[in-house]
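seq:
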Amino acid sequence: MPIFGSSTKDNDKKSKDKKTSARSTRSKQTSVSAKSKPTITKRARRRNETYNLYIHRILKRVNPDNGMSKKSMLVMNSFVVDMYTRVSKEAIRLMKAADRSTLTVGDVESAVLILFPGELSTHATEEGSRAVSLFEQN
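struct:
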């Protein structure tokens, strides 16, 4: 039942008039002139950075016979992104606490020791220091 005496037909007409007027203003804005065609530029698609390739490589290195479903790959990717952000935030907090403007290997190592529990942190720091030494050699 219409409120305040307005009918639904009148509302439909008003909404149609608004739609056509909006379309006409859009077409006026996009048309440049009758002689030249407006140039259409495509937006560059933002790349989704994932760790799927690296997770798959490690899985095949550890256990070549096993595979991984899409959902489990999404879970692992979310886990890696989450841990990366946690470690980077903690390392930046440690860097600012030491009143420095450069993030060092020690900051990242300390952040890992703070965030990861027990033996996992020691293994992570050992692997990280091994990776840094291999990087410095090359």
